Sequence to fold (604 residues):
Amino acid sequence: MFKNLRLRNKLIVSYILLTVIPMASLGFIAYSQYTKSIEEEVGSYLPRILEQATENINKEVQDMKQLPDLIYNSNQVMEVLKKDTLQNKSSILKDEFLVNNYLSQTYINGGSQDILGVFLLSKNRLFDQTKMPFKNFEYANYSFPYGQDLDLQGKDILILPHETSLQFEGNPPYILVMKQLIDYDNRKNLGTIFIAVEMTSLATILDKMDAEHQSKRWIMDDKGRIIYHSDVELISTTLPEFKNYPSINGSFRTLNEQENKLISIYKSKETDWIVGYSITMGYLTERTDSVRNGTIIVFVVFILISALVSILLAWNVSSPLHQLTKLMKKVEKGDFDVDLPIQTKDEVGILAKSFNSMIWKIKDLIRKNYQIEIRQKEAQLHALQTQINPHFMYNTLETIGMSVEEGDNDEAVQMVTILGQMLRYSLNNKEKLVPITQEILQINRYLTLQKYRYEERLFFTIHSDVQTDHFFILKFVFQPIVENAIKYGVEQGKPVHIDIHITHYDHEGEDAISITIKDDGPGIKDEVLQLLLNSLLSDPMANRDAQFGIINVHGRIKLTFGDGFGLKMVSAYGKGTEVNIIIPKITSSHLFQKGEVDDYEKKD
Fold:
């Protein structure tokens, strides 16, 4: 009785739809709104943190600028700097010891721990003290003043990492503080002092902004050049996206879906430096994502329970349709040995009776016409193969004749031996298919003969990614295509390289084999190429008398395996031609003769 009910009972599926859609929409809206609120809250909070960090950085920079003034605390050092450089060696060494000793005690050992080194240039004299070895004491934008040539007008200059090539051992990031020393008694320049200060204090300020180190923090100038970065590898580089940043302090979000980030910047009015902070939205919404994932799990469980109940209620109604669908897919693939045993009187029962009647009529038509079609195709295949053989024999005998005329007996014997092997292969017509290995061996023999003839004008390579001894192919597929490459390339006086590559291929979801024959010959003119492509797309038997080579090979493959297989060709005039052969994977010629070819024809 239940089986005879109308199909409207299947509307139970609407129960699932009315449950899933509202719940999913509600969850999505709630998650989106909560994520947006987090973004807005963090976006307004970060600029205040950056403002405080910028103030601390300004204080550190001010402390750096005061370091050179410590040199004025030593009267002895100032006297040395005032002296004339024309002294005896003993005095020079004594002065050098005195100044270096003061630099070491004041800056290296007794000063800030962040000082890496100090350099004092005065009247062609260099005094230096460092914590570690260094190299490249140069300055990109200013020449170092030997004596009192440089006038800084009493200003302190901060030389940034990208403006100097000076390097310390271990390559620590630093800022070079430069200041001119002045004799305040007579207002004369005494020299210039350079103090290299490691950016440890700046790093500490930035690190306090993110104790878990989940963000990126940096300091850059107003041109986007990075002064310090939490990733030290980026120091001295230019931030690529800086040109897209807004010109005001605040927070913004990137539009890149692959790396969705929240970025906040704050520019210092004192130094014109910009402090930046970047964090991924995924980290900010990590807890929200956990709640979302938990909700999704509960939602999925609820849906599964609802679906199970609905399936149980609708099983007796949907089962006949499901069975009918499976049988129709089998028929679509060419399997007509199906039957739908449904005896109900509802719409599904009527449909099943009509389906069974249709299948019986189709099978009857197949039994009447199939044998006639097979005989016609076998006759067509035989005619095509007969067309190919004379062309092959003519080219091969011509090559051997040229070698005999040149009087090279050993070479002629080798060529005759190869020709005998090729003729034995050609005359063996017991099977329609041969292993791909044999076809490769045959084309290798042919190319070897042609190599004897054309010598340095012909080169060839054959390589395969397929176990060629396991799969089968039609005979004489390679040779007509290779003959064309030689005819229109080598015979016209141009050296040609022919490459044959065999590999696996995915043909409409089924395993197939792709054979690519590529040459670097003269190529094919556009109008001739278009005619060939039109011939490949037309009926393979309609052009059987038009040309030998490519058209006939395509026709044989298409008639044997169906419309989905055959040749594809591309060519660029003056550059070369590439022919791609697509064939199915045939693992046994015996299976092919017994019925595998039938399967391919039924699919068409």
